[in-house]
Design a protein that fits this description.
- The protein contains two helices and 13 strands; from the N terminus they run E-E-H-E-E-E-E-E-E-E-E-E-E-E-H.
- It has 193 residues and is an alpha+beta fold.
- The chain has two domains: 118 residues, no CATH class; 68 residues, no CATH class.
- Helix 1 links the parallel strand 2 and strand 3.
């Protein structure tokens, strides 16, 4: 396998062997599906670019026996800390999460630490979920008066959108060219009959 890092920081792998079991139409279709997945990932990242504590998703592309495949991997890089001056805001420095319980009893883990105190003195997020605990890895700590920004690079994600659109268009053109070639070949074959 050969590794390649794209301009947007996405790592892709290219196997050294050709998969003869697929025809050109199937390859082009899988490339279009992969481009669509990349576009969806970039759009999700852009939509959450201003969500505190959001961790962007990376697209990892690879060639498989059944075509092009894109896997989603969470980027655990720390987002920038932003001073808010509000004493109840919290930011985790390092690895960890705030453990919250919703009114439905479900427990979630989040990096967003914007809290307010309810009338009973409990800390709650803007969705009304109660802070139950802070789970920290060794060496991690919490800073009061700060929030962690998302780790999304908006410009990089816009580049990812453009790259995904171009990949889709290229695969679509290949698919059209294969179809036209097939039609011409069929037309020529019918002339010989």
């Amino acid at each position: 396998m050969r590794e390649r890092l794209s301009s947007s920081g996405h790592l892709s792998f290219t196997p050294a062997v050709y998969h003869a079991g697929m025809d050109g139409i199937a390859w082009a279709a899988s490339a279009m599906t992969a481009a669509q997945t990349r576009l969806e990932i970039a759009a999700q990242n852009l939509a959450n670019g201003s969500t505190d504590g959001f961790r962007r998703t990376l697209a990892r592309g690879s060639l498989q026996a059944r075509g092009v495949r894109v896997d989603q991997v969470r980027d655990d890089e720390q987002g920038a800390l932003r001073r808010t001056g509000r004493a109840l805001d919290r930011a985790i420095v390092g690895e960890g999460a705030f453990v919250l319980r919703g009114t439905d009893g479900r427990t979630i883990r989040t990096r967003s630490g914007a809290f307010t105190r309810d009338r009973f003195g409990a800390l709650r997020d803007d969705a009304g979920r109660k802070l139950m605990a802070t789970s920290l890895a060794h060496g991690s700590y919490v800073r009061s008066g700060f929030l962690e920004s998302s780790n999304v690079d908006a410009v990089g994600e816009m580049v990812n959108v453009l790259e995904a659109e171009r990949s889709f268009e290229t695969a679509q053109k290949v698919l059209t060219a294969i179809d036209q070639s097939s039609q011409r070949a069929n037309s020529k074959m019918s002339e010989f009959k």
